[in-house]
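To: structure subgroup
Subject: Chain for Friday's discussion

All,

I'm putting the inputs and outputs inline so they're searchable in the archive.
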Amino acid sequence: MKVSVLGCGRWGTFIAWYLNKINQDVLLWGRESSHHLKELKSLRKNSFLDLDLKVKLSSSIEEALNFSDLIIVSIGAQSLRGFLKSIISKGLNLQGKSLVLCMKGIEKGTGLRLSQVVKECLGSEVKVAVWIGPGHVQDFILGIPNCMVIDSNNEDLKSFIIKSFSSNLIRFYYGKDLIGNEIGAAAKNVMGIAAGILDGLGYTSLKGALMSRGTREIARLIKALGGNEFSAYGLAHLGDYQATLFSDYSNNRRFGEYLVTGKKYDNLSEGVATSSALLDLSLKVEVEMPISQAVYDVITHKVTPNECVSKLFLRSLKVEF
């Protein structure tokens, strides 16, 4: 099967590597100016993996879209709308294509889930799925397996992707709650920043409380938005906590740690924009989200990290449930 992967960063390049490994015919696209694409064209590798010569590389979006009807998108979540608009402005037709979003986030300013952004830009008839759940490129490359989730409102597309992409390295589960899985996947990045703040302060022992209260907080939001609150306890959210709250590979955890210790962190941390988007959603549906609020307040320097942790975990006297 032919598959186009749009985005040649860490995750997009891994997806191309993985799909080639399971014998799919893959084209990997990146912008002409992308240093990631230049590196791959020159060396056929990046700092994480070696890319098989069978994987085609291209900077032509026309070529990438014409190559396959199954399009995997792996770019920054906040760039999705602009990216889709740029495709439309070129007169390129995405009708009849199936889009799989391998990215996690909520659009800042609108509060839309990424599948909603696609529908708003391309129309309600477009087929869209999400590929989410735990896992780091560094682990997968070593052959360490994990479980992930495919979800979509299109049952045929969901079933097709799972059957085509499953292997001994990644076991895919059928998602049954697109709202809950998308919100949960995005929100775990905010919890990752919170975990990094705890690490930076030397309060790693409070991660147990963060996991318990954070999951409950996101469950309340998912329910208020019309999803199944139990999705917060699945692979998209709680199941991704080890990779996000504890791993040295987690960009969001590292961002939170560096925020406390005063170091600069240049890698993309999706939880930064998502913290703001979550608060906008919480106001719309009137759900209290103290951890998300605290993370946002620390990022925007409204409170110090110590004040944040003290308020959340050390002073309040409340009934747990």
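Points worth raising on Friday:
The longest strand covers residues 146-152.
The chain has 14 helices and eight strands.

D.
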